[in-house]
Amino acid sequence: MVPVLSLLAAASFALSGCGQSDAQTSTTQSASPSQSSEPLTVSDTWIKTADSGMSAAFGSIRNTSDKDVTIVSAAAPVATMVELHETVMGSDGTMKMQAKQGGFVVPARGELKLEPGANHIMLMDLTKPVQAGDEVTFELKTSDGGTVTFTAQAKDFSGANENYTAGEGSGSATPAPSK
């Protein structure tokens, strides 16, 4: 009887772990390159919900070519300013966000992950609220003049309460409250 109960408990634990993992997996949209020669694909995309101020987008960018590709800018209709950001250790020992000088390099036959607390696409001065379930379209531009568009679905995320290096995130954009 004890081995049967142990087996049932283990199976129940395994199933609840799978369910929890599924709940954290976001709905994704893959990129549709707007130029057929563009070697980048974007997947596992999502954007943080925000009522106003700022938000950020995340996902994976894969390069299928034999050459590095540099993403130099991003745009989205829900924000007046969109920047490529990195997170670095500040001189005071705290993690801080700043614009990524030179853009994001996606290595040949490699992948670049955009994640909370790391590289991400920062949306500043939102023009309207980004609510859970909303779909936001992005356009990435590469150093060779190529473009890639993708759609990210908004989801609630309470993390990523960022700090900025001097001069970053200034202007009319203020951090959005956590959800």
TrEMBL record:
Listed Low complexity bias regions: 21-37
Region (Disordered): 21-41, 160-179
Annotated SUPFAM superfamilies: DR1885-like metal-binding protein (SSF110087)
Keywords: Signal
Signal peptide positions (record): 1-23
Designated name of the protein: Copper chaperone PCu(A)C
Organism: Paenarthrobacter nitroguajacolicus
